[in-house]
Amino acid sequence: MKQQRREKVNAMKVLVVYDSKTGNTQKMAEAIAEGAKEAGAEVAVKKIGEPFPLTILAEYDGVAFGSPTRYADVTNEMKDFLSHVEGYVKLGKMKMKGRKAGVFGSYGYDGAWVMEERLKGYVAALGYTVDPKVCVKVDNEIKTRMKETLAECKAWGKEFAKSLK
Hints:
The protein is 45% helix and 22% strand. By secondary structure, the protein is of the alpha/beta class.
């Protein structure tokens, strides 16, 4: 019993924050969370637009940020969310320096590599150290090869959580 408690206290904490329009990025977020749990992390999943305190981000060792691609960028909702977080950071309400972040998302046609780089930049500007490995999938891939694609997302989540130790 004491061993289990000790492990839980030392467990890394991962937060998965995402926006989703068609459900593809949500499926990815759930698979990433499952992988992080398999790595022994305590995990929470939050969708942009649902109420939760911004300060929750400071309680986690690592945050995986996910968004679908919209015109080679993240969604407006994700941009707004990150802008609000930036305000908290600038006011000194939260410190992200030394915390790690990962980036994931989905896209329909093109612009994914631009979205990846933009999201990495937005997150790095908050003070996070951004993992260079991303998990970005084509919508069609998610629909036609769902099992394999979500297994890749799960593996990415597991690797991200392990990188926090």
